[in-house]
Design goal:
Distance between the termini of chain B: 36 Å
Oligomer: heterotrimer
Shape of chain B: globular
Chains: A mainly alpha, B mainly alpha, C alpha+beta
Radius of gyration of chain B: 23 Å
Structural class of chain A: mainly alpha
Number of domains of chain A: 1
Helix content of chain A: 40-55%
Strand content of chain A: under 5%
Number of strands of chain A: 2
Order of helices and strands of chain A: HHEEHHHHHHH
Largest sheet of chain A: 2 strands, antiparallel
Radius of gyration of chain A: 24 Å
CATH architecture of chain A: Alpha-Beta Complex
Strand order of the largest sheet of chain A: 1-2
Largest interface: B-C, 78 and 69 residues
CATH topology of chain A: Cytochrome C3
Chain lengths: 174, 464, 305
């Protein structure tokens, strides 16, 4: 009698698991991501993933086809009509940080279709800011990531701002 | 000096002093002081009001020139990255070089084409050429970022495809040629007949070298602007003919500069000019004017051809076109008309005025090409810094001073008399006035390269 | 006899010169760039005017402190150009108000046949095989002909220096990066990837592909592909190039083509003038035979009564 109950219980469990929809992946999505590629100059970006899912809904808007949904871009669809999900969904899975090193250029040169693939930094900014400009999100540099001290030195701003206007434009130079 | 001459002070015009029974040689110091005592020399210098103007200019200008080298170019110019070339090059180099083409022109006319009637003014033309080029190089030294590196294109690093490379080499070589040509007068003055003879032997070669070098670098200065085809206004720029414009306009420029200088010399330094110069000057002025007007007519023609060639007629209607008309009418057409009239009617005064117009016109053309119409597409023009103007004036004053210094001493405006100057020399006629006068005429121009005194015995055998 | 020998040699030289000169001096082929030459594609539709490239250049090339911070956007009120203190600048243009401003980065374009290089008489410029046009300040005399020649008005001069003024311009980060195969500092720093680094040949393909994929976004022209013989820094723009500060009247010929006409006459003059003018001299002399120059003139002219 216990054997039958056990079998039934296991059966229910299996059924429950099996019936779980594919987008239960969503439960594995992080709500908040820290992007720290520009660590020397800027603080980490606290990216509210959950909010973006709520606002955008269509994963393909940001993740192309890598989450399994069809991308809208006509140039991509030509080839990626039937492309499904990929192993790594995060941007850095395909967009490398160092896209202009000699090795990276060699690799890029081999794939004529993705020769023009953006670097990680470019992908973030173009994807994010392109939409933010239209949808009214943050577009200023410091609205997403604050400058660190090294960053302030880099931009000669904040505590590193020039104290006085140097002599220019009067005699020679400009 | 007029006063001293009237008082009987002898002028230095030969190796020997006239006073006294036995001829004694002038010392170098005496030659430098024009045969005056130091006190007399100072007195006449102070009396001359032109010297006061020069003194003021030098007092203001020399410290500023020193400042240019101590503080850098930004202290004296507004040269910027868009306008790298300013007055030093626009006026000093591009302006003075065409006016100094008299060297090769008069040398060629006398030596190559055999126009010996031009001899009285030949040396003035050669000196004008030498000093003009020398001071153009002085302006360049003030303008260059690192003037101590001037020899670099000669010895350190070669960029032979660059037009400026050609200019540098040619100007250096041509300066040497001109120094050699003027050295004849110098050797006469200093008393070094061997040097004079040596140079005389290679004069033909020097002259031909001078023509080659001059043609190329006068043209090359124009070709420099072909590096910036869009930057010079189309009316002043011609893709194919830029170098020809500059070369052809240098011909009237040089000849008219000689007319202007000879006019000034004759009126301010009358005591220095000998009879041969004074009597022939008017005729020579007319001859030079003929050459200049041919040059001007050719220049006008090629300017029109280049407008037609690139179909730039519509630019004439613009504001720049009006300025172009001012330059062409004032600097080319008006002088041409005046020359035509005055040569025909032998009105030397009008010729002189017209020559001045031509000189101004040539300099204006250079300054237009190099400065005023440069970067005509950019919204802002560069106005030269006041210190730049001061330095230009100062250097020009130095040029005038050196010019005057040499003209007062070396046998340029007068002939250097040979040893036996008391003896009248019946010089075979050379086609100019004064040749057949029995009075002690100036004999010894460079033709008396043989320095033997003309004795009475040989005189009687000379053809009349 | 000396004179006759001189004249004979002149005529021989002249003839040799006239025969030996090749007539096809100009138009004799163009330089497409070194095969391994790198380049940068600048996509003006992506630039947002953050000036990070200017900051990166300033730090990489150890340039002096700027007058205002690099985050300051007020500099866009005036059009700037590269100077001794800033090898690259960004300018803002507003060609169509409703579409927002267009930002344009200005720096040396590293031409295939640079005008600066051809105009330098001490050979201070070199086009490296990586494509950079670099400059040797040790031989520079300061004539500033390169500044006159550059059709893009790029080289700056350190007028403020009294004792060592030199030309200052973008060198493609050659000494610190390009030599080692790394992209220049501005390319690495740009957040929007306005600047794409790669082989010039590949960049042209990428550029045309971008135009093909999104034709509404771009003007169908890659600036620098052919202008003045081709440059290593290529530009894509969403508005007509002359509206964003580019000179579109430059033509496809490298600047040296303008100068070749004159340079071609130089050997002609050097060969022909000696014989020509010595010939004139012979024609003008009446006496056929005279050995000493000095005596000849006095015998020459007919004595006038």
């Amino acid at each position: 009698m216990y054997a039958a109950r056990n079998r039934l219980l296991w059966g229910f469990i299996m059924l429950a698991l099996g019936m779980a929809p594919a987008n239960s992946w969503a439960k594995a999505m992080p709500d908040s991501i820290s992007l720290d590629a520009l660590a020397q100059l800027y603080e980490k970006v606290k990216f509210n993933h959950a909010k973006h899912i709520r606002l955008v809904r269509d994963c393909a808007e940001c993740h192309h086809h890598t989450t399994g949904t069809l991308t809208a871009d006509a140039n991509c669809v030509r080839c990626h009509k039937n492309s499904g999900a990929t192993a790594v969904v995060a941007c850095r899975g395909c967009h490398s940080a160092q896209t202009f090193s000699a090795e990276a250029l060699r690799e890029k040169g081999k794939n004529i279709y993705h020769m023009d693939k953006l670097s990680l930094k470019g992908a973030y900014h173009q994807n994010c800011m392109g939409c933010h400009a239209k949808a009214g999100g943050p577009t200023g540099c410091q609205e997403c990531h604050a400058l660190k001290k090294a960053g302030e030195a880099f931009y000669n701003t904040g505590r590193f701002a020039p104290k006085h206007a140097a002599m220019n434009g009067k005699h020679g130079g400009e | 000096m007029k006063r001293y001459k009237a008082d009987g002070v002898a002028t230095v015009d030969s190796m020997y002093k006239v006073s006294g029974e036995t001829p004694a040689k002038w010392s170098l110091l005496e030659k430098l002081l024009l045969g005056l005592t130091p006190r007399q020399y100072l007195a006449q210098a102070v009396r001359n009001p032109f010297n006061w103007i020069l003194a003021i200019i030098f007092a203001v200008g020399f410290p500023i020139i020193a400042g240019r080298f101590l503080f850098g170019l930004s202290w004296v110019t507004h040269s910027s990255c868009d306008y790298p070339w300013g007055l030093f090059l626009g006026f000093g180099l591009f302006g003075m070089v065409p006016l100094s083409s008299s060297g090769f022109q008069l040398g060629t006319a006398v030596e190559v084409f055999g126009r010996h009637d031009l001899e009285p003014i030949e040396r003035l033309g050669l000196l004008n050429g030498l000093l003009g080029y020398f001071f153009a190089v002085c302006y360049l030294m003030v303008d260059l970022g690192q003037p101590w590196r001037l020899p670099y294109p000669m010895v350190v690093a070669w960029g032979p495809a660059a037009v400026l490379f050609l200019v540098a080499w040619h100007v250096a070589t041509y300066l040497s040629v001109q120094i050699a040509e003027v050295s004849v007068a110098f050797f006469e003055w200093i008393g070094f007949p061997m040097g004079k003879r040596g140079v005389r032997r290679i004069t033909l070669g020097l002259t031909v070298a001078g023509i080659i070098l001059s043609t190329l670098h006068q043209g090359a200065l124009g070709a420099l602007f072909t590096y910036a085809p869009g930057k010079v206004h189309p009316l002043w720029y011609s893709a194919s003919f830029q170098w020809l414009h500059f070369f052809v306009s240098s011909i009237p420029g040089g000849l008219c500069m000689v007319i202007v200088v000879s006019t000034i010399a004759r009126s301010t330094m009358t005591w220095r000019c000998d009879d041969r110069f004074r009597e022939n000057l008017d005729k020579l002025t007319i001859t030079l004017a003929k050459g200049a007007s041919m040059g001007l007519a050719t220049y006008l023609t090629i300017k029109l051809i280049s407008i037609a060639h690139d179909n730039k007629w519509e630019y004439l209607g613009s504001g720049w076109g009006a300025w172009y008309a001012v330059e062409m009418v004032g600097g080319v057409i008006l002088p041409l008309v005046l020359f035509a009239y005055s040569i025909r009617n032998k009105k030397v005064g009008v010729i002189r005025f017209s020559a001045l117009l031509t000189v101004v016109g040539v300099v204006l053309n250079r300054m237009n090409t190099a400065m005023f119409t440069f970067n005509w597409k950019l919204p802002e023009r560069e106005i030269p810094h006041w210190r730049e103007v001061v330095i230009c004036i100062t250097l020009y004053a130095v040029y005038i001073t050196v010019y005057r210094f040499i003209l007062c001493r070396l046998p340029i405006l007068y002939g250097w008399k040979t040893a036996d100057e008391a003896v009248p020399a019946a010089e075979p006629a050379k086609g100019y006035v004064g040749a057949a006068h029995p009075a002690p005429a100036a004999v010894g121009t460079y033709h008396s390269s043989v320095e033997e005194p003309i004795t009475s015995a040989s005189l009687s055998t000379m053809p009349e | 006899m000396k004179r006759r020998d001189f004249l004979k040699s002149c005529i021989l030289c002249g003839a040799a010169g006239a025969l030996g000169v090749s007539g096809k001096a100009w138009g004799a082929g163009s330089f497409e760039g070194y095969p391994e030459g790198m380049g940068v594609l600048v996509d003006l539709t992506r630039c947002v005017g953050c000036r990070t490239c200017e900051a990166a250049c300033n730090k990489e090339q150890k340039l002096p402190e700027p007058d205002v911070p690099f985050t300051d956007q007020s500099v866009f009120e005036e059009k700037r150009r590269p100077t001794e203190r800033a090898y690259t600048v960004v300018n803002r243009f507003e060609p169509k108000r409703e579409e927002g401003p267009v930002y344009r980065k200005v720096q040396c374009n590293h031409c295939n046949e640079p005008a600066c290089l051809t105009s330098c008489f001490v050979n201070a410029y070199t086009k490296t095989k990586e494509g950079a046009v670099v400059y040797n300040p040790k031989v520079c005399v300061g004539c500033r002909n390169c500044m006159v020649a550059c059709p893009f008005n790029v080289p700056g001069y350190s007028y403020s220096s009294a004792f060592n003024p030199v030309v200052k311009k973008c060198i493609f980060c050659y000494d610190t990066r390009l030599k080692f195969g790394r992209p220049p500092a501005c390319v690495e720093a740009c957040p929007q990837e306005v600047l794409t680094f790669g082989h010039r040949k590949d960049l042209l393909k990428i550029a045309h592909e971008r135009i093909r994929e999104t034709p509404d976004r771009y003007v169908d022209h890659v600036y620098g592909e052919k202008e003045v013989g081709g440059t290593s820094w290529l530009y894509l723009s969403g508005v007509q190039f002359d509206r964003v500060g580019f000179d579109t009247t430059l033509g496809n010929e490298p600047i040296i083509s303008n100068v070749k006409e004159f340079l071609g006459t130089v050997p002609m003059v050097l060969s022909i003038w000696p014989a020509l003018f010595t010939g004139f001299h012979l024609l003008s002399n009446r006496k056929q035979d005279h050995s000493d120059h000095g005596d000849s003139h006095s015998d020459q002219e007919d004595p006038k009564p």
